[in-house]
Amino acid sequence: MGNVTPMLREAAPEVEALELELLLEALLQRYGYDFRGHERAALRRKLRAVMQRRGLRTLSQLQDRVLHEPAAASAALRALHVPPATLFDDPDEARQLRQLAGAGLRGAALPRIWLADCAGAEQAWTLAIILAEEGLLEQTEIHATVASDELLAEAQDASIAPESMARYQAAYVRSGGQGELSRFFTASGKRLALAAPLRSHITWAQYNLVTDASFNEFNMIVCRRALPDFGPLLRQRVLHLFHASLAPFGILGLDRAIDATDALTAQYAEMPQPGWCRRIA
To answer: PROSITE patterns, per this entry (predicted)?
Structure first.
């Protein structure tokens, strides 16, 4: 018989739970990435997809590969980090950014925006294009942080295929854009990259939301894609980090409203756009 790819087998729940904790500890000890504060259901879903692609039956088998094979470690970490965005892939968020950018940035001497756990270059490019259209980019700094050096290198060297532009144009129009999206891009070999005048306003850095401290004061902080996977304790840690980093009357964009029982609730006013609030104290 030929080779048969092993089918994913359900382990006993208590065994799989133990395997997951051991794998998370291995990722921390071996590579320095701490996912122990993430929701377990989200972690299992993402890791099972990695196992299926690699023909593995248990999390223990995945742990063995992660510890000994760089490619397996890279695949697991990539799955656990924020999935990459594409240009204007969230029309609602783009429209909300158009509405809120002026309220959060006008009047500031040197406005700063933090894209925390940014979903790659195209999320940052989307924001830069919106700010350019709103006449706000020239004086604004965008700080985009990602969780690993590998993601950082990819973001800094990113480009898109010319044949993708028609699809991106349609998403851009759905998000409230007008005119030709291509005017914001220049040729980079056989591919396209965001034009240098826009790229110059984006500063990329590796940053770990789990362990790192506040590094600047921002007029707007956006973290809507990573937070859904955070467990309650990690979420609270990150919300306090954002509070320490947000300027008075700055705008915070989250995946959902701050919980009514949270200690920070009284210091924020909800905005009409879902998940957005303004610091008032």
So the answer is: CHER
CA distance 209 to 237: 9
* DSSP bridge pairs for 270: 277
Q: Can you tell me the distance from the alpha carbon of 206 to that of 149, in angstroms, rounded to the nearest whole number?
A: 6
**Angle, vertex CA 27, rays to CA 62 and CA 115, nearest 5:** 115
How far is 184 from 177, CA to CA, in rounded Å? 12
| Distance separating alpha carbons of residues 90 and 93, to the nearest angstrom | 5
Q: Which helix (H) or strand (E) holds 246?
A: strand 246-254
Give the pLDDT confidence of 46-102 residue by residue, as tens digits. 999 999 999 999 999 999 999 999 999 999 999 999 999 999 999 999 999 999 998
Give the span between the Cα atoms of 25 and 54, in whole angstroms.
Answer: 21
Owner of token pair 């830069």:
128
Could you give the C-alpha distances from 184 to 132, 192, 198, in angstroms and in order?
Answer: 9, 10, 8
